[in-house]
Structures are given as C-alpha cells and as structure tokens.
Amino acid sequence: MKMNRLFATAAITALFATIAMAADISGKWVGQVPGRNGTTENTFTLKQAGDQLTGTMTNQAGEFPIKEGKVTGDDVSFKVTLEFNGNSIGLMFSGKVSGDELKMKRTREGSDQAQEFSLKKAS
Fold first, then answer.
1. Do the beta carbons of residue 101 and residue 120 sit within 8 Å?
2. By residue range, what is the domain housing residue 23?
3. How far apart are CA 70 and CA 86, in angstroms?
4. pLDDT-derived band of residue 35, with 50, 70 and 90 as boundaries?
5. How many domains does the chain have?
6. Taking burial as the number of CB atoms within 10 A of a residue's CB, which of 3, 52, 67, 101 is the most buried?
7. CATH assignment of the domain containing 25
8. Surface-to-core class of residue 116, CB atoms within 10 Å of its CB (0-12 exposed, 13-18 middle, 19+ buried)
9. Phi then psi dihedrals of residue 110, to 5 deg
10. Nearest-10 Cα torsion for 66, 69, 71, 77
11. 107 within 8 A of 95, measured Cβ to Cβ
C-alpha cells in the first residue's frame, strides 16, 4: 500500500514537471507557407491553455479556425479545414517550438506528402 502511494505521488510529480516545462506558444506566428502556386504569407494566432491549443490561421484566402490543437512539451499539432467552392480540405499541422521559431510540417488529409516551413514569433 505504501509503495503504491509512493509510486502515485512520483507519477503526479513527473506529470506536473512535464506540464511546467512545456513551451507557451500563445501569440502571433508568421511565415511563408508553401502552396500549390508558390509560397504565401500566413499568420497563425495561437492561444494555449494547458495542453490545449486554439486560434486561427489567416492568409489571402481568409481566416480559418484551428481545431484539435494540442501542445505536448515542445511538440505542437492542430488541424485547419479550408472550404473552397463547397469542398472541404483538411490540413494537418505538426511541429516543434524552439524559442521564437516554430518548425512545422503540413500534410493534407488522405495524403502522406508533407511540406515543411518555419514560423517566427511576431513582436
């Protein structure tokens, strides 16, 4: 019984330490994102609450909400759904934050081709 309590206490302490070390990526991030017709400037406005991530992605096509966002340590992932002419396109983003840089990879749902790009934190 004492050993179980000690193990539970150690596990909870490790969990809180991991959460405390996680990067807070809230704010605006800007970068050139590759697309079908070259690169376009995109702005990601991110809001982190614990391990949950929300916000928007804005580019010349409009503003799109971030869905299913998650932050685990320095790892970031989220989904953006684009709507064009009645068609939905799901984009999956994943990356790693390092200081004021966010190195990202984007894939389209149903495809394994990835495009890589970097975002910089806007001041």
1. yes
2. 2-121
3. 28
4. confident
5. 1
6. 101
7. 2.40.128.120
8. exposed
9. 85, 0
10. -80
11. no
